[in-house]
Specification:
With 338 residues, the protein is of the alpha/beta class. The chain has helices at residues 29-41, 62-74, 92-102, 126-139, 201-205, 263-273, 307-320, 324-329, and strands at residues 4-8, 16-19, 22-25, 46-50, 82-86, 109-113, 144-150, 156-160, 183-186, 189-192, 220-224, 243-247, 276-282, 300-303. The strands form three sheets. An eight-stranded mixed beta sheet has the order 4-1-5-6-7-8-9-10, sandwiched between helices. It has a four-stranded parallel beta sheet with strand order 11-12-13-14, with helices on both faces. The protein has a two-stranded antiparallel sheet with strand order 2-3. Strand 7 and strand 8 (156-160) form a beta hairpin. The longest helix is centred in the middle third of the chain and has 14 residues, at 126-139.
Length: 338
């Protein structure tokens, strides 16, 4: 153990204070977070602090993500036991999935930490999430991309960055796909979650192939299936995307009857414009519903990964000049469930 962690502060709620009822950024919260951690948990860990940017995560632009990524790339990994990156909760899921791809072969733990409330709010679990990340880093001898996050009235969970799914509405809680986290912090000790869907520590110790796709492209439209969705309103007469990502219902279905709500009509429209359509999520081992028969032959299918990961893979493929299907089929950091 080197007893040294690199902490990269990027803003977000965990980097904010409340002023006149408004949550906004404050550059002093980085020192406050570490001071509160020292006050509660002590420890001999030394922290080296970097501030590549200070932004609310909902305002994140592609260039901001690149600044974050370049900051991580320039860190001398041999000097540290791990890296902690503080991040806003609103887009935590995207960044975690994104970093799990482009840093899939990192040799030390890269742990993203957030908070639903500013550090000076008594409801904040930012210090606990920060402490959980430190405990995890001190406990393991392998690298990868992870998220440390404590939901309401739960232990702090450790998630694989490639398995984190979008936060719940209102409560803003985070879970891993299938509700199977990688582990949790109990009594300030990391406990691995022995589950058939989780990679083992031995698997995480094995070398991983670097991700070929490193650049993002935002020329993609995402659509979420819902009752009475009218696909006729999605017309690309002025600006044409390179791809369309459609989030299916949980059973891997979408409306394929009628006229304006018929997804197959929309597929035909996109095909005529040369726009690739990707559907997610689809379980390769599940039975196919009658409404979904034949869809796999009409568009690109994201099998056995979350919608969030499918989105990241598609954007990376588009930005890096790669085939979307080929990137969807790859398994860089245990994102595949089968």
């Amino acid at each position: 153990m080197k007893n040294r962690i690199c902490v990269i502060f990027t803003g977000g709620t965990i980097g904010s204070f409340v002023n006149d009822g408004v949550v906004d950024l404050n550059s002093e919260t980085s020192s406050l977070l570490i001071a509160k951690y020292r006050e509660r948990f002590g420890g001999a860990i030394e922290f080296d602090v970097l501030h590549p940017l200070n932004i609310l995560s909902e305002n994140m632009q592609p260039g901001d993500l690149e600044i974050m990524a370049n900051c991580i790339r320039t860190v001398d990994k041999s000097r540290y036991d791990g890296i902690i990156l503080t991040h806003g909760t609103d887009t935590l899921c995207f960044t975690a999935n994104y970093f799990s791809q482009i840093f899939c072969d990192i040799k030390i733990p890269l742990v993203l930490v957030s908070a639903l409330y500013p550090i000076d709010d008594e409801r904040s679990r930012g210090v606990e999430n920060f402490a959980g990340a430190i405990t995890f880093i001190e406990s393991v001898d392998y690298g990868g991309v992870f998220v440390s996050f404590e939901n309401h009235s739960e232990n702090c969970k450790i998630h694989l960055g490639s398995r984190l799914i979008a936060a719940t509405q209102w409560r803003g809680e985070y879970e891993s796909i299938l509700n199977v986290p990688y582990g949790e912090i109990r009594g300030w000790r990391f406990v691995y979650n022995e589950n058939q869907h989780n990679p083992t520590p031995s698997e995480l110790r094995r070398p991983r192939t670097a991700c070929d796709a490193q650049k993002l492209c935002t020329d993609m439209v995402t659509i979420q299936a819902h009752s009475l969705l009218n696909f006729d309103y999605y017309r690309f007469n002025e600006i044409k995307p390179k791809a369309v990502m459609v989030q299916l219902y949980h059973s891997g279905t979408v409306c394929t009857e009628g006229d304006e709500a018929n997804f197959k009509n929309f597929l035909a429209y996109c095909k005529g414009l040369g726009i690739e359509v990707v559907i997610a999520t689809v379980d390769s081992k599940a039975r196919v519903y009658g409404s979904a028969v034949g869809l796999q032959n009409m568009c690109t299918v994201a099998y056995d990964i979350s919608f969030e990961m499918a989105t990241v893979k598609a954007l990376l493929a588009l930005g890096s000049g790669k085939s979307i299907k080929s990137e969807l089929d790859k398994n860089y950091f245990f994102e595949k469930l089968h």
